[in-house]
Design brief:
11 strands; 8 helices; 5-stranded parallel β-sheet; 224 residues
Length: 224
């Protein structure tokens, strides 16, 4: 994998870069948030490792700016802030995983490999269809009938997972582990927030509801 490390602490960056190279990956380094944003915008990296506290532009803003550009490069956030609320904030801003400092290099590598496996598995299909809902994975477009639906990268990933598991009950834990690639308190409202936004886009102004809540169990996407 070709990975960008955005980390202002030189010792930490060197430690990570050395470990990645020894694991047969290639790694670039940016020591400030604004530089990291430019590099991540201009180059198609396989993954990003982003420190949360950075000069010029913080890590969460960097990731949010990339998502606004439509770049969905998997991003692993590094931070000394490890409370549930801190992790939730990182994931809401577009991060795909969250690793607290200090960390073991072996765990960081395992998390990157998990992100890569998920992306490779999801790239096999280029078109998904559930009833009148259609998703073009290459063009990154979603339509319900003749109506084009604009989604943010996280919403797109969430809908993709739901479409791949259509007519099945999907639990909060399943979504956290497969859409956010992180396992923490399943009672967090990060799922509710994104489901609500997604439902407003794919169901509002249509005659039938496709995305339904199964009380006490999770969510289900059904053909309308």
């Amino acid at each position: 994998m070709h990975i960008l490390i955005v980390e202002d602490d030189e010792a930490t960056a060197t430690y990570i870069q050395k470990g990645l190279i020894e694991a047969n990956h290639t790694a670039d380094h940016a020591n400030a948030g604004d530089l990291g944003l430019r590099m991540a915008s201009d180059t198609n990296y396989d993954a990003l490792i982003v420190d949360r506290m950075l000069p010029n532009l913080d890590g969460l803003s960097l990731i949010a700016d990339l998502r606004e550009q439509g770049k969905d490069t998997p991003a692993l956030i590094l931070s000394a802030l490890g409370e549930v609320n801190d992790r939730v904030e990182g994931l809401k801003m577009g991060g795909d995983d969250y690793l607290t400092k200090p960390f073991a290099l072996s765990e960081l590598l395992a998390r990157l490999e998990a992100l890569s496996r998920r992306n490779n598995a999801e790239s096999k299909d280029t078109q998904l269809t559930v009833g009148e809902l259609k998703m073009d994975l290459l063009g990154r477009e979603v339509h319900r009938g003749e109506t084009k639906i604009d989604l943010q990268p996280r919403e797109f990933r969430l809908l993709e997972y739901l479409m791949r598991h259509s007519n099945q009950v999907v639990t909060r834990t399943m979504l956290l582990e497969n859409v956010w690639d992180y396992n923490f308190d399943p009672q967090t409202n990060v799922i509710d927030v994104h489901i609500s936004r997604l439902r407003g886009k794919i169901d509002k102004n249509f005659d039938s509801q496709m995305l339904n809540t199964v009380r006490g169990a999770g969510y289900i996407l059904r053909e309308s």
